From TrEMBL:
Ranges of residues in domain Protein kinase: 62-438
Database matches in InterPro entries: Kinase-like_dom_sf, Prot_kinase_dom, Protein_kinase_ATP_BS, SRPK
Protein name, per record: non-specific serine/threonine protein kinase
Database matches in Gene3D superfamilies: Phosphorylase Kinase, domain 1, Transferase(Phosphotransferase) domain 1
Keywords for this protein: ATP-binding, Kinase, Nucleotide-binding, Serine/threonine-protein kinase, Transferase
Xref: PROSITE patterns: PROTEIN_KINASE_ATP, PROTEIN_KINASE_DOM
């Protein structure tokens, strides 16, 4: 058995908060231009692979053109498949998150299983997941990395919310409005998300945060629900949709660059040129945490604010962890303001949790879902009416009215106790809206 390789020595004394010893400001020029960015300290042995624009992977088949994003264990890049002459997404995992046996990689296994289920069930609706096109290993200075090639998707919901937020002129104190999705996009995406959950339940597959209860509970976040990108006609269109040519920060330190560090840092695409249109649908991404509905899930790598309330009280996943601290108390109080009072069976434990955090608590700005829903619906309608680029068809009033049905859906899903939550099928039945923007075309026929 080979010995564990010695860790790479930092180029200088470690900085506070930078375990690898690498800083940002004195190594790359104009670094503010490329934030947000994955932590530089993770570019060392067993960490991220240093990618340079123009790098080629898999015997030269895939050429990196832009950066799509990053997560805790991988970076994702726009690449051109020179053999098939198509754009793809190339996900490169940290070496420590990569397995020797590619077939045992959780995400590869999940995507292959999803494709198998999609095929044998003869599905006619678009996939609720991204297509896995290829996978391979790449050896670099920081180790051996698992690489997944998938179809190119558009921005996540979280990315588009950041785009909307960036449109706010913060220097104008009188500006009170923010951008949001079109009414039909909200309704169509809501329906597609529920259809995805129902499909996965039928297939016996559970996405990372979904609990296999008879009445489903899921913690899919805006970060792992992505739109498609059907409107890019040619390469120039795609670059414009991504927000323009890549923004980079070159390595500029006086000492030689260690091979574990990138030649330049690349800012992730902003997707500022993407716009929601009826042709786009949604996909669930990040399947590394998925499992069979028959498997017992012992713990979840979910942030506290994505956990459903029963995980705090009945120990569904994290009964061995001390989660109910001050931050949890604030979160639960805010949740109760939105969803209503906690179940009486949880009162004793809730009282003990409160005792652990003396002093003022809660955020009075939170209001119940029912109290704020109509205000939000009218706000969405107001923005749609003011949008000069948004052509309003004769049936636009049907879309405006259709938004009303989402209150019943959200109230049914956002129940404290899992057995009280409606099923995905029941939620779908409550969306009383006809999508008059597009005709349903089976994905198999499109291909």
């Amino acid at each position: 058995m080979s010995e564990e390789p010695e860790p790479l020595k930092p180029l200088r004394a470690p900085l506070p908060g930078h375990p690898g010893g690498y800083g940002w400001d004195d190594r790359y020029e104009e670094i503010v231009r490329i934030f947000p960015h994955e932590p530089l300290e993770k570019y060392l042995r067993n960490g991220f692979h240093p990618v340079t624009l123009g790098d080629r992977f898999f015997d030269g088949r895939y050429t990196v053109r832009h950066k799509l994003g990053f997560g805790g264990s991988a970076t994702v890049w726009l690449a051109k498949d020179d053999r098939e002459n198509q754009w793809v997404a190339l996900k490169i995992k940290q070496a420590k998150a990569s397995l020797d046996d590619l077939e045992q990689d959780p995400e590869i296994k999940a995507l292959k299983l999803l494709e198998h289920k999609y095929t044998i069930h003869g599905s006619t609706k678009p996939r609720c997941f991204s297509r896995l096109l290829s996978y391979f290993q790449h050896i670099g200075p920081n180790g051996t990395h698992t690489c997944l090639v998938t179809e190119l998707l558009g921005p996540s919901i979280a990315q588009m919310l950041r785009v909307f937020d960036a449109m706010i002129p913060w220097d104008d104190p009188d500006y009170q409005e923010v951008e949001t999705f079109r009414p039909d996009t909200i309704l169509r995406s809501s329906r597609q998300l529920l259809e995805a959950v129902e499909t996965l339940k039928v297939w016996g597959i559970v996405h990372g945060g979904m609990e296999p209860h008879a009445s489903f509970s899921f913690h899919i976040s805006p970060s792992n629900v992505s739109f498609t990108c059907q409107t890019a006609i040619d390469d120039e269109d795609l670059i414009e949709i991504l927000g323009g040519e890549p923004t980079i920060a070159e390595y500029s330190a006086s000492e030689p660059r260690d091979e574990c560090l990138p030649k330049h840092l690349v800012r992730a695409a902003t997707w500022s040129g993407w716009f929601d249109c009826p042709e786009e649908s949604i996909r669930l991404i990040d399947w590394g945490e998925s499992s069979s509905a028959n498997d017992k899930v012992s713990e979840l790598s979910q942030p506290i604010n994505l956990r459903s309330p029963e995980t705090f009280f009945i120990g569904s996943f994290d009964h061995r962890h001390d989660l109910w601290r001050a931050g949890c108390v604030d979160y639960i109080e805010s949740m109760a303001l939105v969803m209503g009072p906690l179940p009486s069976a949880w009162n004793d434990q809730w009282a003990r949790m409160i005792q652990e955090k003396p002093g003022p608590r809660g955020d009075p700005r939170f209001q119940s879902l029912r109290e704020t829903f109509e205000q939000r619906r009218h706000f969405i309608i107001k923005l749609a009416e003011k949008d000069e680029d948004f052509e309003k068809p004769d049936f636009i009033e049907d879309d405006y009215q259709g938004l009303s049905c989402l209150l019943s859906v959200m109230e049914g899903l956002m129940q404290h106790e899992p057995q009280e939550r409606i099923t995905s099928g029941e939620a779908l039945a409550r969306i009383q809206w006809v999508d008059q923007w597009v005709c349903d075309v089976p994905e198999n026929e499109e291909e």
